[in-house]
Amino acid sequence: MSKDRPTLLTVRDAADRLNVTPRTLKYYEERGLVSPTRSEGRYRLYDEDDLERFARILRLRSLGFSLQGITEMLKRPLESTETGSNRFSTESLQAIRDGLSQQVDALDARIEAMRRELKEAQTLKAELSHDLDYVVRRLAGENADTLLKQRREAQAARKSKKSRARDESA
Question: Which residues belong to any copy of the HTH merR-type domain (predicted)?
């Protein structure tokens, strides 16, 4: 192989070199953290940049960072310090913070929407339970007029309870 061409590793060779399973590499690719080149036969091929990126991902995972956090971090460059180590600049850290904050805000909005949907589903379930109870009792032979009277009384009691609850919270 020519020295001009970079060395490309198969998924097995790259996994062995990084001391992980091939599935780990494929998982990070599925998550969009790395995009290896493909051979004509569509095999994944990893170059040194891919391996460095994987090593960075693995270091961040070992430190307990989430994949979402790592995704934000990979968007930002590392800068060399006086001691020779690589660190994020203040600007990069602020951008990471902003990206993560946006994700948290979006999740908060989704959680709130799910809570509203859950509350609506619980209300619908309660209404259907009353309907089901009526039908089951009718099938058991109970008198329709008696059941309808009980149903109206129960409905009036529920409305009264809701009204009292609104008055107490006001």
Answer: 8-76
**CA terminus-to-terminus distance, the chain:** 80
Say if residue 165's pLDDT is above 50. Answer: yes
d(CA 168, CA 146) in angstroms, rounded, equals: 33
Cα–Cα distance for residue pair 20/12, rounded to 1 Å: 9
Question: What is the mean predicted confidence (pLDDT) over 102-110?
Answer: 95
Amino acid identity at 60: L
Which of 1.10.1660.10, 3.40.1010.10, 1.20.1420.30, 3.30.70.60 is the CATH number of 1-66? 1.10.1660.10
Distance CA 120, CA 155 (A): 18
Question: pTM (2 decimals)?
Answer: 0.63
Q: What is the DSSP-derived secondary structure letter of residue 7?
A: P
SS3 15: helix
